[in-house]
Amino acid sequence: MDLGIKGKKVIVTASSSGIGYATAKRFLEEGAEVLISSHDENKLLNAYNTLKGISKSVYYMKIDLTKPEEVSSLISEGSSMLGGLDILVYVTGSPKPGNLLELTNEDWINGFNLLLMSAVVAVRESAKIMKKGGRIILSTSTTLREPIDNLDLSNVIRLSLAGLIKSASRELASKGILVNGVMPGWTLTKRLDQLIKDRSKRENRTEDSVLKDLVKDIPLGRLANPEEVANVIIFLASSLSTYVTGTLIPVDGGNIKGIF
Ligand SMILES: NC(=O)c1ccc[n+]([C@@H]2O[C@H](COP(=O)([O-])OP(=O)(O)OC[C@H]3O[C@@H](n4cnc5c(N)ncnc54)[C@H](OP(=O)(O)O)[C@@H]3O)[C@@H](O)[C@H]2O)c1
């Protein structure tokens, strides 16, 4: 089935591993031209070299998402490398785990830059370049709908991304640019390993028992593979979703209990 993605020029942030990497891979498999990015040069080069095996139309640029000027450069220089920009997939790094009494002012400022400011800059700079038909997709978290204990940076700051998606979708609709998001639930990536270790330490129990408890609460009875999140992102970037904008889709195996 032709998804209308072949030849599209795509930037995927935070894509040396996990959800971002799986998304970049899916776009390359669909025949897009993809620029990947992250802030650890070795990891980024490894990802680039592996993806090169799928398609020669892959590029990379090292940037730190906590630095707004580097996010700006990613969009301007990245789109020059690609020869334009049709699709931005914004994924970000993982905020430090912690609760209100543990996190310092500095943690909150870093969290703000990583989770929100980078998204604002990436969306704004992409919107300046994109033409009619452009797509902006932000990968966030189910913490947007249901807070998770000891993930306060995510619980608080990511809520703003819902506002950003809604505001940008309304503002950019007249330019023919669609703006949406996904909310991954527990997904098999390095981030999950980090969270399981953190919880196991806090609650003084084995990592295995933490993992079993997480899975127990998921109606589908298992964790997500990053490719399952990537597939929903591909849908939002495809010609199948031309009347979808301003929305956030959970990809969580049914884990969010709330109806709205
Ligand atoms: N896994 C889950 O269960 C889950 C659920 C909901 C939401 N999320 C969120 O999804 C996002 C992606 O995480 P993941 O699960 O795919 O984990 P992951 O495999 O650890 O991927 C994180 C990615 O972020 C990049 N990154 C980290 N800090 C960065 C920075 N300052 N600047 C640029 N890139 C940076 C990493 O690359 P480098 O290290 O190479 O820089 C890596 O490519 C995170 O925000 C995470 O909190 C994850």
TrEMBL record:
One Pfam family here: adh_short_C2
Protein name per UniProt: Short-chain dehydrogenase
Native organism: Acidianus manzaensis
SUPFAM superfamilies: NAD(P)-binding Rossmann-fold domains (SSF51735)
InterPro entries, per database record: NAD(P)-bd_dom_sf, SDR, SDR_fam
UniProt record similarity statement: Belongs to the short-chain dehydrogenases/reductases (SDR) family.
Top-level taxon of origin: Archaea
Lineage of the organism: Archaea, Thermoproteota, Thermoprotei, Sulfolobales, Sulfolobaceae
